[in-house]
Amino acid sequence: MPYGTERAEATLTDEVAIVTGASSGIGAATARELARRGATVVLAARRVGLLDAQVESIKRAGGQATAIPADMADASDVTMIAERTLASFGRVDVLVNNAGVFWSRPLASSPPDQITSLAQVNLLGAMLLTRAVLPSMMQCRHGAIITVGSLSGRVAMEPLYSATKYGLRGFSLALRRQLAGTGVSVSLVSPGNINTDMTRHVAARMPEPSLVATAIADLVRHPRREVIVPSRHYAIAWLEQMLPTLADLVHRQRGWSPVREEETATWMSLLQAAMACLAAT
Ligand SMILES: NC(=O)c1ccc[n+]([C@@H]2O[C@H](COP(=O)([O-])OP(=O)(O)OC[C@H]3O[C@@H](n4cnc5c(N)ncnc54)[C@H](OP(=O)(O)O)[C@@H]3O)[C@@H](O)[C@H]2O)c1
To answer: Is 161 in the active site?
Structure first.
């Protein structure tokens, strides 16, 4: 039986997709989902053993996949991913910019070389790989670029990590406008906490990576400016944009960041007064 036909028809047959950060978590789940829908998938990451295991599991299930070990912090590795894919398959139809690392140390104690590395992996790598595959996509007038941002690119949380994700968001939204009419779509997925190695430290129950993988695979055929998953997080993204001072209060109450007390105390009393007025009417 062809890969995954028991769940859905393969809608991505003949598409060649690159997924970065495909050795674990969201990237591995995305590679499996794209292959399940019929795409030939190129999996890129550093941990060769895990990459090979993902490729084998896709092949065992009847899908097509190949691994390219690469470090997204190294610009020549990034170019090599595009070159090897083009040499093997003649084109790239889908690029999923997913590789990323989390960073939560305070800025003052973050070593400069690690700040540079974070920006290279999370932001620059995605920009350079997108640049490397674009000429082929534009020549074919066909392609989908899907970038994995984060809720931290909508709501300011950890300064360094958020900076990379806000950057990715700006990159994706502006590139979408730049490429309008070229046949190349640009979409952004902004997940909240998802159950992967990256969130080992989080105690709460979280959605599995397959939720994000399905959203990403859907964006190939149905591109969107931005999708937040799970959708309940649209509320906090809206609050951050429309009422940032109130969002400060939520941050403080949930212990996400130590927003100044006197500021939030003022908002708390305003909020309590407003609620008392509402209750009285
Ligand atoms: N989990 C969440 O709650 C969450 C929420 C919002 C956004 N995200 C984003 O989702 C993406 C995937 O994260 P995840 O949750 O699936 O975590 P994960 O399981 O830790 O996956 C991270 C992936 O990125 C790869 N990677 C890290 N550094 C790399 C480098 N220098 N070169 C190449 N690949 C590198 C890792 O592969 P190697 O180590 O093998 O290189 C791994 O495959 C990230 O961009 C993350 O920011 C995650």
So the answer is: yes
Q: Is residue 1 part of a domain?
A: no
Tokens representing residue 113 in the block: 């070389």
pLDDT digits (tens, 9 = 90+) for 190-238: 999 999 999 999 999 999 999 999 999 999 999 999 999 999 999 999 9
Ligand 1 binding pocket, CB closer than 6 Å: 21-27, 45-47, 50, 71-73, 98-101, 121, 148, 150, 191, 193-194, 196-199, 209
Residue matched to tokens 């979280």: 206
Cis-peptide, bond into residue 191, ω within 30° of zero: no
**Residue 270's domain spans which residues?**
243-281
Number of structural domains, the chain?
2
DSSP helix/strand/coil, 226: strand
Token pair for 168: 């990715």
Q: Are 57 and 78 in contact (CB under 8 A)?
A: no
Q: Distance, CA 261 to ligand 1 centroid (Å)?
A: 34
Distance of alpha carbon 80 from alpha carbon 221, whole angstroms: 27
Q: Helix H segments across 222-260?
A: 234-242, 244-254
Whole-model pTM: value is 0.91
